[in-house]
Amino acid sequence: MAKNLFFPHDLGLRPRARRASVPLLAALGLASCAAEGAVPADLPPLDPQIVQDQDDMTWEDYRPIPGKNWADPSLQPERGFRLAVVAVDFPDQPFVITLPKGSDPFGNPQIDPIPREEVPQFYADFWMTPSALNHGQTIRGYWMEQSRGRFGVTEVEAFGPYRMPKPFWAYGLNEYGQHDYTPDGSDIRNNRLERDCDSLWAADLGVPADSLRSRFDAVLRIYAGYDETGVWQEFGEMKFASRDAIPPEWGNPNPSKPRWVPTRYVEWTSWLAGAQQWGLSSMRQGENSGTITHELGHFAFRLPDLNNNPYVQPYRRAAAGPWDMMDRGCFNGPGGPHMRWVVPPMAGAAMPAGLMLKNRLETGFVSPHEVLTLSREGLARSGLVVAKVTARAVDPVPGSYAGIIVRLDGPEPHDRTPPDDPATNPLSAGTPNYNGYSLEVVQRIGYDSFTPDNGVLLAKFKDNLRGNNGGPNAFNSYIWVIDAHPEDINRVDYIRPNGEKVMRTLADYRQLNDALFHAGLDSGSSFEWTDPHNGLHFYVVDLEYTAEGIRVYQLGVRSLAGSGPHRRGLALSGPSDVPVTAPNTPVTFTLRNTGERVPLPAGLHPDSVPALGDHDLYRLAVSVQGDGWNAQIRNALVAVPVAGEAPIPVYVTPPRNASGAAIVVLRAVSESDPSRSAEIRARVRATR
Questions:
Q1: Crossing angle between the packed helical segments 139-147 and 119-128, to the nearest 10 degrees
Q2: Is 185 exposed, middle or buried (0-12, 13-18, 19+ CB in 10 A)?
Q3: How many Å apart are CA 474 and CA 492, to the nearest integer?
Q4: Which string of DSSP letters, residue by residue, matches 126-189?
Q5: Dihedral sign of CA atoms 279, 283, 289, 293 in order
Q6: Which of 408, 439, 431 has the alpha carbon at shortest distance from 534?
Q7: 256-280 burial string, b = 16+ CB within 10 Å, else e?
């Protein structure tokens, strides 16, 4: 494995501007680097943060997993899943996909029309069979990729089309206080599409309706028209200046009634958008729905929602945002959340994020032996633990893990975070009842191609998947991402018809686009994070790449309550006199771990930790004595095993037209025992 290679394009990704400067991080109290070690622009950072916004993504941003195509229909999962696709339309709403291209009020369909009788099979194939239209990406491929072949849809049978007995609005206006907005004043609160759909389906097959489900693991009911979740904003407040500005063609067919209706998150949207149905985990989905994968997460694995309400005040930060499919990561895809109205659904929500470590353990997609599980109490007795973690889109490479878990154990309360008020703190994680921390690596390959960054994802989690996080803006948050950039991302959400810019709220899930931690100095992010209340310090120590370009990070975690019994020590060696011929000439020192490892009792951690206590972690700083000279390091951390050593390159630049000399000073301090430090000096000479 090649170490410390710099891949600014990371498997072909286009570089983007980094999100924050080192001074900004310092102002926020996020550790990044010693001032004297700041890396200038001409020395590339080890691990630059390159945040790409959802609005700017296209299908060109997809990067396949090296050597593996999980969408290949010939691959058979360990656990198969039988799915029925039942398609229905309405007397007043034909299938959008059967209309002339771009002809309906929403601007759909995006392709030439499909005959009505072919619609059920068209959608079954669109979601399950790789093709040019779906860019080779399928729901089956998603689950095969996440589970590494443990789970996948193996049988799909299409039924219909069937014509529903009631108009489309008779099923869509029974949610979120909309039932008073029917054109004829009828009471539709008890209408259920599922019931009427299944009656038609059963009659067609000549079997009792209650026998249908026994033949399949799930039924996906595709209805003509739209999921309200994908159109309420784009064809409401984004399209019309006010609810009174909605024109007749977007309003209630009854001209005596309002042209708007209330909707789930805000006071109004256009009647035509609001009269559509909201997709549900009962597997009721419109033709624009890209969130079927998310609904299968509910249905097949009983995973609950993680998403907040980003529009209600007081605002409350998202839980996992774009990093997990059970949160708004289900909206990932070309163009992001405002492109979820497209039919067929080949833009926003077409490529949901992977599952975070907690959810992968819950589903059995990651085996416990692939995860390093540590004890907070054990860390205080064992000392620092350093381990390698591979990008979550692939299996861990030898000598690494799929992630790290740190259990918050010991005397109660286990989570010792002081309570705060979510009504006044929009960044509140809520009720302090979390059970541990997880660390994992995200790389923009496979279904993670449409996550906004590469790097290390740090989060708190709860053992109980259900239960709100308190406050007037409570929601379920059994995962809570630690944001490396908690400041407002300060980006426009959309522009109103009158030209007014509407900024993303603090509760918008895209506030977490820049949440990942990165290795090294001047990355635009941070390489460490401390939880003083729970007594833990997390480190992103280094970054490696495999021959296939897969990211493998070296991560560290230590207790603030103790560093174990090991004797710590270090020594620095290196050249005494170095000619400097060009900018950023490397002067390489060597750091040796002179400490001694003390045997530890068994059972300090839930897992047997290889070489427990073998490493120490050192913090580096460099300075230079000489007018106009500059000395830099790319990484302020290095982990070295006992009796091992590591090279420390210092990059030296002489003053312009200089012919003199300077003294470079490198200092290293043990993180486990700050009383142990070393310093070395080297004379550098400018030569021309």
A1: 30
A2: exposed
A3: 25
A4: HHHS--TTTTT--HHHHHHHHHTTSEEEEEEEEEEEEE-SS-THHHHSSSTT-GGG-TT----T
A5: positive
A6: 408
A7: ebbbbbbbbeeebbbbbbbbbbbbb
Adjacency order of strands within the sheet including 151-163: 151-163, 79-89, 218-223, 284-286
Predicted pLDDT of residue 87: 98
Classify 201 as helix, strand or coil. helix
Which residues are registered as beta bridge partners of 456?
Answer: 441, 517
The answer to whether 623 and 631 are in contact (CB under 8 A) is yes
pLDDT at 435: 98
Q: How many CA atoms lie within 13 A of 545 on its CB side?
A: 16
| pLDDT at 259 (0 to 100) | 98
Two tokens at 455? 């790097």
Give CA–CA dist 535/516, Å, rounded.
21
- Per the CB < 8 A criterion, the answer to whether 329 and 322 are in contact is yes
Distance CA 125, CA 153 (A): 12
Looking only at the bridges linking them, the beta strands covering 151-163 and 79-89 are parallel
CA trace torsion 481, 485, 488, 492 (10° rounding): -90
CB 535 within 8 A of CB 38: no
Dihedral (C-alpha) 7, 8, 10, 12: value to the nearest 10 degrees? Answer: -120
Residues of the chain with pLDDT under 50: 1-41
Identity of the amino acid at 530: T
Residue written as tokens 């703190």? 425
For 666, phi and psi rounded to 5 degrees?
-110, 130
Residue 408 has a pLDDT of: 98
Six token digits for residue 514: 């820049």
Sign of torsion, CA 26 31 417 553?
positive
pLDDT of the residue at 33: 35
Residues 487-543: tens digit of each pLDDT = 999 999 999 999 999 999 999 999 999 999 999 999 999 999 999 999 999 999 999
Distance CA 571, CA 589 (A): 10
Question: Quick one: 165 exposed, middle or buried, by C-beta within 10 A (0-12, 13-18, 19+)?
Answer: exposed
Integer Cα distance of 614 and 686 in angstroms: 40
Which runs of E-coded beta strand occur in 255-296? 260-261, 269-270, 284-286
What is the rounded distance in angstroms from the CA atom of residue 682 to the CA atom of residue 381?
A: 38
Burial of 321 (0-12, 13-18, 19+ CB in 10 A): buried
The encoded tokens of residue 113 equal: 């029309």
Question: Distance (Å, rounded) from C-alpha 302 to C-alpha 363?
Answer: 9
Q: Over the stretch 33-47, which tens digit does the pLDDT of each residue have?
A: 333 334 444 789 999
- Phi and psi at 98, nearest 5°, equal -90, -5
**Cis status of the peptide bond prior to 649, with omega within 30 of 0:** no
Answer yes or no: are the C-beta atoms of 287 and 97 closer than 8 Å: yes
Helix (H, G, I), strand (E, B) or coil at 460: strand
Largest CA distance in the chain: 95
Tokens of 342: 């497209």
CA 435 to chain centre: 20
Domains, the chain, in order of start with CATH, read: 2-55+360-559 (no CATH), 65-228+276-302+321-355 (no CATH), 570-686 (2.60.40.2310)
> Could you check whether the bond before residue 314 is cis, i.e. omega within 30 degrees of 0?
yes
Distances (CA, A) of 531 to 45, 436, 437, 482: 26, 12, 10, 10
